[in-house]
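Dear Dr. H.,

I hope your travels went smoothly. While you were away I took the liberty of generating a structure for the chain from your last submission, since the lab meeting agenda had it listed for discussion. I wanted you to have the full record in hand beforehand rather than looking at slides cold. The sequence, exactly as received, is reproduced here:
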Amino acid sequence: MDRILLIDDEPEIRTLIRIHMERAGFQIIEAESGRQAIERMNEQHFELMILDLMMDDGNGFDVLRYLHEKSLETIVIALSARREVQDKITTLGLGAVDYVTKPFSPLELLARVQAQLRRQRPKSTHQSELVRLNKLVLDVDNLVLHNDRNNPHELTPVECELLKLFMQNPDRVLTKREIYRQIWQHENYDDNNLSVFISRLRKILESLSGSQHTLHTVRGVGYRFSGDK
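The corresponding predicted structure, in token form, is as follows:
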């Protein structure tokens, strides 16, 4: 049974989420503050965390920073009433894999939780450890991208999966919905989440010395990965 840490300072929201998660077979441990969440994490391991970003006693950003400092491998889905793109950039940059805005559907949140846990399961198919495209080499297992000049760049799991998808489909236009379905594995498409990760990937590619690979925006459709012919 997957163990989920649910962190929110509103009891009604915790109750609503817990009911739906427990019906789906998950074990739920609650915390009402960021400080309490850190205490829970020191006591036991959690496969996934549902984290409210704005709380009075230690906010969600403190929890994300703690996870990063301790190198704890816990999937984080952030909850927030804030819809600003900069908040999403900060949150995803600190390691969250998804961002859900309030108010939200509990069933949608459940779908996102299930999709993220499926994505973390070991693949049964025989998957190459390295993905190569021209001068780029993506080390999928170790979440590292480098080129023939050996400029290593560490990636988050979502960044790695996105780049793998693009490298395996060079010069092909991938629709936004197709990308979201492949990476997040559910139908609740969020254009802002995707655009934040695309922006991060572009900066990573620009930082690789000598790389000419580019993520092109195909207006109204999606993205195309090309370069280094």
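Two observations you may find useful: The first strand starts at residue 3 and ends at 7. The chain has a mean pLDDT of 85.

With kind regards,
E. W.
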